[in-house]
Amino acid sequence: MTRIRASCPICGEVDLRHDDVMLHVVRAPDGLISDLSEYRFQCPSCADEVTKPADERIAQLLTTGGVAVAETLPELPPHPEFPSAGPPLTPDDLLDLHLLLAQPDWFTEMLRDTPV
Questions:
Q1: What is the pLDDT of residues 46-79, one digit of tens each?
Q2: Is 21 among the domain residues?
Q3: Residues sharing a CB contact under 8 Å with residue 115, sequence separation 6 or more, in sequence order
Q4: Residue 32 domain-assigned?
């Protein structure tokens, strides 16, 4: 069985089993492990809950040792087919868009009307 050595702020170094530790990985938008990632365990000596930061190297070591991983994916922008806000498209909006697209300078007009 793999032994995991960690440090408790009260007791110092302690030995843990893989099922004593939980790794929580938070992914950054680029897919790498962010600074919000952490691992936690209950100290076998004093029973305190200990939370420590987990960088890429620590996460790799813990997962290699069989530690369970809870992963949070990055917040993604809303999909264009499911906009997060705004009123629904009405028949009048559709007609206005149709008339706008019939003009030769429709793209310039749309840029002018778009809020920054």
A1: 999 999 999 999 999 999 989 999 988 766 666 7
A2: yes
A3: none
A4: yes
